[in-house]
Design goal:
By secondary structure, the chain is α/β, with parallel strands linked by helices. The protein has eleven helices and twelve strands. The protein has an eight-stranded parallel sheet with strand order 11-10-9-8-5-4-3-12, with helices on one face. It has a two-stranded antiparallel sheet with strand order 1-2. The protein has a two-stranded antiparallel sheet with strand order 6-7. The protein starts with 5 loop residues before the first strand and ends with a helix.
Length: 313
């Protein structure tokens, strides 16, 4: 990955963010360490996780991904060379965004990550039971205390994002520098429009999650294929839609033109969208990583973009 780094407030990040949702879930610690090592060796520095990962898995309680990443950071001694993003608000023991919850959750995350600071701290889901004035001062305190460098918002409406940014400006508090929306070639309306416009107006960067639509945009799911994975049921749903089939056909064409993997094309399209700084994609094994890293160096032509835009419209 040789493309230029992107700026998020005071942070400088690589153009692909490595998703940590699989660590401690479908990838055990040795597998996770191998993926993390290969990502960094490939030029990546931006690792995304959340305190809730992976509470949904049988036997897990949340915090497994942060623990794996923390153990990796400690064993490699490379904390200052990577940018760690994590999230607050969805852990079973720390739900919502009350100041007390945020305070307890950040300390738990720091302990698991085995570090004294989090580079980018997201509110995982907006807590609409609270006014933005209820929780932004708590996030600002974390920044002032040095526990967090920058703050951001995942899963937030345009209206609430506007309100949060206005309050931060009025009160001279830390402000969101980024958003993390659900966004990919088969799910454009989850970001495009009001939310993307709000991000652009305020100069916020976007780090889309579900960048590969639960693996559907890797091209491995076909009407006649039988792929067994933790995400195959979700991916199969896209095959049943007209848009899904059109996008797959467009990806086939563009991938063949460039001799590139479908995932590389899908991520390159996403990385080129307005406001997008670094799509998030996860790899369970080292051999899944090269197509993800290659997206930063793939130049899509105007014809490629037109084909993909029209298929995904």
């Amino acid at each position: 990955m040789t493309a230029a780094q992107k700026t998020l407030g005071s942070l400088s990040v690589s153009p692909l963010s490595l998703g940590g949702n699989v660590f401690g879930w479908t990838a055990d610690e040795p597998q996770s360490f191998a993926v993390l090592d290969a990502y960094v060796a490939g030029g990546g520095n931006f690792i995304d996780t959340a305190d809730v990962y992976s509470a949904w898995a049988p036997g897990n309680k949340g915090g497994e991904s942060e623990t794996v990443i923390g153990n990796w950071l400690a064993s490699r001694g490379n904390r200052d060379e990577v940018v760690i993003a994590t999230k607050v608000g969805a852990h079973p023991e720390h739900k919502g965004l009350s100041p007390a919850t945020i305070k307890a959750a950040v300390d738990a995350s720091l302990t698991r990550l085995r570090t004294d600071h989090i580079d980018l701290y997201y509110t995982h889901y907006d807590d609409e039971s609270l006014d933005v004035s209820d929780f932004l001062p708590a996030l600002d305190e974390l920044v002032k205390a040095g526990k967090v460098r920058e703050i951001a918002a995942s899963n937030i409406s345009a209206r609430r994002l506007d309100a949060a940014l206005a309050f931060s400006a009025e009160e001279n508090l830390a402000r969101y520098v980024a958003v993390q929306p659900h966004y990919n070639l088969v799910s454009r309306d989850t970001y495009e429009g009001e939310l993307a416009d709000t991000a652009a107006r305020h100069g916020l960067a976007a780090m889309p999650y579900y960048s590969l639509a639960s693996g559907f945009l890797t091209g491995k799911y076909r009407p006649d294929s039988d792929v067994t994975s933790a995400r195959s049921e979700k991916a199969a749903q896209y095959l049943a839609t007209d848009r899904g089939r059109k996008v797959l056909a467009a990806l086939d064409t563009v991938a063949a033109t460039h001799q590139a993997a479908h995932a590389t094309v899908a991520l390159a399209w996403l990385a080129g969208r307005p406001t997008v700084a670094a799509p998030i994609a996860s790899a369970r094994t080292v051999d899944q990583l090269p197509p993800l890293l290659a997206a930063a160096d793939l130049h899509l032509t105007r014809d490629d973009l037109t084909l993909l835009d029209e298929a995904s419209a």
